[in-house]
Design goal:
Number of helices of chain A: 4
CATH class of the largest domain in chain B: Mainly Alpha
Structural class of chain A: mainly alpha
Oligomer: heterodimer
Distance between the termini of chain B: 58 Å
CATH superfamily of the largest domain in chain B: Cytochrome c oxidase, subunit III, four-helix bundle
Strand order of the largest sheet of chain B: 4-3-2-1-5
Helix content of chain A: over 70%
Number of domains of chain A: 2
Strand content of chain A: under 5%
Largest sheet of chain A: 2 strands, antiparallel
Helix content of chain B: 55-70%
Number of helices of chain B: 10
Largest interface: A-B, 61 and 69 residues
Structural class of chain B: alpha+beta
Distance between the termini of chain A: 71 Å
Order of helices and strands of chain B: HHHHEEHHEEHEHHH
CATH architecture of the largest domain in chain B: Up-down Bundle
Radius of gyration of chain B: 26 Å
Number of domains of chain B: 2
CATH topology of the largest domain in chain B: Four Helix Bundle (Hemerythrin (Met), subunit A)
Chain lengths: ~120, ~325
C-alpha cells in the first residue's frame, strides 16, 4: 500500500477514544466548577507569586493538552524522533517567551506603581 | 496495478516525499511542521496577553463578571456556563473527528462519512456560539463612564449589584446629532452617539443616594474596590469625561482597552482557524463521499485534516484557561 502508518494491525481504538473523552470532560467540569465558586482558600493562598487556584487551572490545562496531543493527535503512536521534535521545540520556545514577557510586564507594572511617573491623569 | 489504484504521485521520489523519515508520510510531516509554527503564533498572542495583563495586574477585568450571559437567560448572572458549553462542543467534535480517523484505518467509508459530518456540525455550532459571544461583548450590558486617564467607572447599588446606565440616567433635555459629513467637520464622521450623555448620568447618579461607583482596582481579596458615596460623587464629578457602552478597539466598558483588543484578536484568530477547519473538513467530506480515498486505498487525508482539527481544539483549551479561568 502507498501509505503504511506505524500500526500494522487496524483494530478499533473506539474504547480508548471514549475513555479520553470522559477524562477531558471530567477535567473541564472540575475547572468550570472551580471557576464559578472560586474557593476563598485557593484564591488567597499564593504559591510562587501566583494564586493556588491559577496553578490548578494551568496544571489541569496541561493535563488536557497531553491527552489531546497523545490520544487524539496520535503522538503516542509516532516515532520517538517525531514526538520529541514536536513537543520539545514547542515547550522550550514557549517557556522562554512566557518567562521573558511576563517578567517584563511585571517590571513595567512596578515602574508605574513606584516610579513616580504620573500616568493616570 | 497502476491502472486500478489512484496514487498521490509521490512514490519513489526522494524529495517529493516518497521516502518517509520518522515513519511519517510527507503530508503528515508537513502538517506537523505547520502545527508547531502555528502553536508558536498562538503562544505569542497569549504571551502578549499575559504581558499586558501583568502590566495592568491590579486593574484587569474579572472574566466571570464580563462573560456572564447565557441564551434565553436575560439578566441572570451565569458566569462560565456558555463558554463551558462551547468547550464541550469543541471537545466533542474532536472526539467525532478521531472516531472518523479510526474508521478510516479500517477503510469503513460509511462511518468516516458519518463522523466527518458530525465534526462539521460541531464546528459550525462553535463558530455560531462565538458570534453570539462577540455580539454580547460588543453590545455590552450595563455601560460605564470613562475617565481622562482611561479608567472605567462602573455603577453598583448598595448590595454591590451592577446597575445599567439606562436605570441611572436622568431624562434631561438634550439635542445631539451624530457627526456626519454634511455637518461642520466634513472630514470626520461617527456613526452614532451614545444613548445617554455624561450630564444625564451625573444628574441621575446625584439624585439616587443608593448608587456607588465601582472602580477597576482590585483589592487584596480579589474583588474590585467599591467607593463610598462621597468618594463616588467626587470621582464621578471631577474625573469622568465620557460614557462608554459596549466595546470596540479603542474603548470598552469592561476595563483597559487592551482587554477588548486581545479578546477580539485572540478569539477572532482562533475562530478563523475553526472556520477554515470547517471549510477543509467539508472538502475532505465530499472527497470521502466521492470515494477518492477508497480508491486510493488510504484515508490518510482524513488523518491529516484531523490533526489540524485537534490542534484547533488544543488551542481552545489554552484560550479557555487564560482568558476565562485564570
Amino acid at each position: 500500500m502507498a501509505h503504511d502508518t506505524t500500526h500494522t494491525h487496524h483494530e478499533s481504538n473506539a474504547k480508548r477514544i471514549w475513555m479520553v473523552f470522559a477524562i477531558l470532560s471530567a477535567v473541564t467540569i472540575v475547572e468550570v466548577i472551580l471557576g464559578i465558586i472560586r474557593p476563598t482558600f485557593l484564591v488567597e493562598t499564593h504559591f510562587l507569586a501566583m494564586r493556588l487556584l491559577n496553578w490548578i487551572f494551568i496544571i489541569l490545562t496541561l493535563y488536557k493538552a497531553y491527552y489531546i496531543a497523545w490520544a487524539f493527535m496520535h503522538l503516542e503512536g509516532e516515532t520517538k524522533g517525531l514526538r520529541r521534535s514536536v513537543v520539545w521545540t514547542a515547550i522550550f520556545l514557549i517557556s522562554y517567551l512566557m518567562f521573558i514577557l511576563l517578567t517584563e510586564g511585571d517590571y513595567i507594572f512596578d515602574v508605574y506603581k513606584h516610579g513616580y511617573i504620573a500616568w493616570d491623569f | 496495478m497502476e491502472a486500478t489504484v489512484i496514487r498521490t504521485g509521490t512514490e519513489g521520489k526522494t524529495w517529493g516525499g516518497g521516502n518517509e523519515p520518522l515513519k511519517a508520510s510527507y503530508g503528515k510531516m508537513m502538517m506537523w511542521f505547520f502545527i508547531v509554527s502555528d502553536a508558536l503564533t498562538f503562544s505569542a498572542f497569549l504571551a502578549a496577553y499575559g504581558f499586558s495583563r501583568f502590566k495592568f495586574i491590579d486593574s484587569w477585568p474579572i472574566a466571570d463578571q464580563v462573560f456572564n450571559h447565557f441564551p434565553f437567560l436575560h439578566g441572570v448572572d451565569a458566569p462560565m456556563y456558555y463558554v463551558a458549553f462551547m468547550t464541550f462542543i469543541l471537545i466533542f467534535s474532536s472526539v467525532t473527528m478521531v472516531l472518523g480517523v479510526d474508521a478510516g484505518h479500517r477503510l469503513d467509508k460509511g462511518k468516516v462519512t458519518l463522523y466527518m459530518f458530525l465534526t462539521i456540525i460541531g464546528g459550525l455550532i462553535f463558530v455560531g456560539s462565538q458570534a453570539w459571544e462577540w455580539t454580547n461583548f460588543i453590545k455590552g450590558e450595563y455601560g460605564a463612564v470613562t475617565t481622562e486617564g482611561g479608567n472605567i467607572l462602573q455603577f453598583v447599588n448598595g448590595e454591590g449589584e451592577r446597575v445599567a446606565l439606562e436605570d441611572i440616567a436622568a431624562s434631561l433635555p438634550s439635542e445631539r446629532i451624530a457627526n456626519g459629513r454634511s455637518e461642520e467637520v466634513w472630514f470626520s464622521s461617527n456613526e452614532s452617539v451614545a444613548d445617554y450623555t455624561l450630564e444625564q448620568v451625573k444628574a441621575g447618579f446625584a439624585s439616587n443616594p443608593d448608587l456607588l461607583v465601582k472602580t477597576l482596582k482590585t483589592g487584596e481579596d480579589g474583588h474590585k474596590i467599591i467607593l463610598n458615596r462621597e468618594e463616588s460623587l467626587a470621582k464621578l464629578n471631577t474625573e469622568a469625561v465620557g460614557v462608554v457602552e459596549g466595546a470596540n478597539l479603542t474603548h470598552n466598558e469592561y476595563g483597559p482597552p487592551l482587554f477588548a483588543d486581545f479578546f477580539f484578536f485572540i478569539t477572532g484568530f482562533h475562530g478563523f482557524h475553526v472556520f477554515s477547519g470547517v471549510i477543509i473538513n467539508i472538502i475532505i467530506f465530499f472527497n470521502v463521499i466521492l470515494g477518492t480515498y477508497e480508491r486510493r486505498g488510504s484515508y490518510e487525508m482524513v488523518e491529516k485534516v484531523g490533526l489540524y482539527w485537534h490542534f484547533v481544539d488544543l488551542v481552545w483549551v489554552f484560550v479557555f484557561t487564560f482568558f476565562y479561568l485564570v
